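Duplicate of #3305? Posting structure anyway:
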């Protein structure tokens, strides 16, 4: 590892040089099946022709002007996303963390305008919302927060998927919002009860709280719906989005429903790079490709196929506690810490991830075929057989 880089990552000993579809090739010419997609980023796979063409054309035309001027591609992207999500307005930024920061600021401003001097946001144990100070403080993982105290005040935390714990906070006059993931990502691919989000929506409505959903990992078709909240038949007040939106090009978005669409006014929030022509043109190409290739429905079908194949291949293993997920967001929970499987998978030409210590997380591109899923399942089965 280069001494010129801050040592913030425990990098694997592989350098990738090129990619195509669900495949990557390293500097020595070895081929790998990518079941991580850049951590749920490259939903269209690597070097999708429509996205590549959009980046090339826009880079040769106009990359950046700043938000001091009209932004036609930003307006088009905002309209497309709001229509897909059933929401009203969008703010564009550069990452998921920034999208959550925008949501947190929006909630605080909403509370202050209601006369609440110390507005508080409820988040969940085991959550992950980003690495900046407010997003870090919202995150429900003390290990990630350690050493960065004092944390930003104004956050309450309760167990995930626990409506009773939230109801117990109903008498707290400072609470203005609840921020949760529809399915946890870094927390271990935990799928909540089917009635969790509907009950949470109703509780927020009763208490005058904003329902804010972190769809950074679950959005853009990953779970077999454009956004995971759509499985529950609800609409949040605020949604944070990133990862799959740019298929590898940095872009994030914070969407707001009618209830809070006008909270941000001129001067309340901003960004230098966010929503520039290159980023928005790329995201528009991503949406076009997802729609034209029917990848949302495909993710739902491929996800069912993957979980079924994993159950058949691994269901009899005593060390496999649960296979869970939705769409192409799948977790295999083992009965032990299993971080060593990441390196062992690379040796077999399969790129996986381990999260929450004992959960093998699979986030393959939405374009993956059934034959490629069969290869993935076979690789994981052999991996566990050799490392059981």
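Output from current build:
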């Amino acid at each position: 590892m280069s001494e010129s880089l801050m040592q913030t990552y425990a990098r694997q000993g592989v350098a990738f040089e090129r990619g195509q579809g669900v495949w990557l090739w390293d500097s020595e010419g070895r081929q790998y099946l990518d079941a991580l997609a850049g951590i749920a980023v490259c939903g269209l796979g690597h070097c999708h022709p429509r996205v590549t063409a959009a980046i090339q054309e826009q880079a040769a035309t106009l990359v950046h002007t700043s938000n001091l001027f009209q932004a036609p591609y930003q307006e088009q992207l905002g309209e497309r996303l709001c229509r897909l999500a059933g929401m009203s307005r969008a703010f564009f930024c550069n990452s998921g963390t920034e999208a959550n920061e925008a949501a947190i600021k929006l909630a605080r401003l909403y509370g202050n305008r209601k006369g609440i001097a110390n507005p508080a946001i409820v988040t969940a144990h085991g959550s992950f919302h980003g690495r900046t100070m407010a997003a870090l403080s919202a995150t429900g993982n003390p290990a990630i927060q350690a050493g960065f105290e004092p944390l930003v005040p104004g956050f309450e935390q309760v167990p995930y998927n626990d409506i009773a714990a939230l109801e117990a906070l109903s008498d707290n006059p400072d609470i203005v919002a609840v921020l949760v993931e529809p399915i946890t990502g870094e927390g271990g691919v935990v799928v909540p009860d089917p009635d969790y989000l509907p009950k949470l929506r109703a509780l927020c409505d009763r208490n005058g709280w904003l329902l804010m959903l972190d769809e950074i990992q679950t959005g853009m078709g990953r779970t077999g719906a454009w956004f995971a909240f759509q499985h529950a038949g609800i609409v949040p007040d605020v949604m944070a989005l990133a990862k799959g939106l740019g298929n590898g090009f940095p872009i994030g978005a914070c969407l707001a429903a009618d209830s809070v669409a006008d909270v941000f006014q001129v001067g309340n929030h901003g960004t230098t790079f966010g929503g520039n022509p290159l980023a928005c043109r790329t995201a528009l190409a991503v949406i076009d490709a997802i729609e034209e290739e029917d990848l949302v429905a495909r993710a739902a079908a491929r996800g069912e196929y993957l979980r079924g194949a994993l159950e058949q291949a691994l269901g009899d293993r005593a060390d496999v506690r649960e296979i869970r997920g939705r769409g192409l967001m799948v977790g295999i929970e083992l009965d032990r810490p299993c971080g060593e499987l990441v390196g062992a998978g690379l040796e077999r030409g399969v790129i996986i991830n381990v999260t929450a210590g004992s959960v093998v997380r699979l986030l393959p591109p939405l374009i993956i075929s059934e034959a490629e899923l069969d290869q993935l399942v076979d690789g994981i089965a052999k991996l566990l057989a050799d490392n059981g």
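Confirmed duplicate; merging threads. The chain has two domains: 16-48+294-386, 51-292. The longest helix spans residues 295-314.
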